[in-house]
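[step 3/7] fold_predict: job queued, chain A
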Amino acid sequence: KNPKVEPRFFMFFEHWGMRISAWYMTNAYAALVLRSTISKEIIKEFNKHKDIKIAYPSQNLYLGNLNQNHFEQHHENTHFYARNKD
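[step 4/7] structure written:
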């Protein structure tokens, strides 16, 4: 092994955003610490730019005029909360 191998970084655009991939060599005990350090540095650099926003995937399901009892009878293993728009 060559312990002086420089880390390599790659960037890929995905349908949900951007993926940053880092390839580096380290011993097994230091891998999580190094991964955490790299992540913190990336976030720190992103935070320097006001025009970069970090969004997390989320989903909303709006069910209008749904009979909740009917739904629960046919989907007994599904849990949901219905709220009126009022």
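[step 5/7] annotate
Residues 1-77 form one domain.
The longest helix spans residues 31-47.
exit 0
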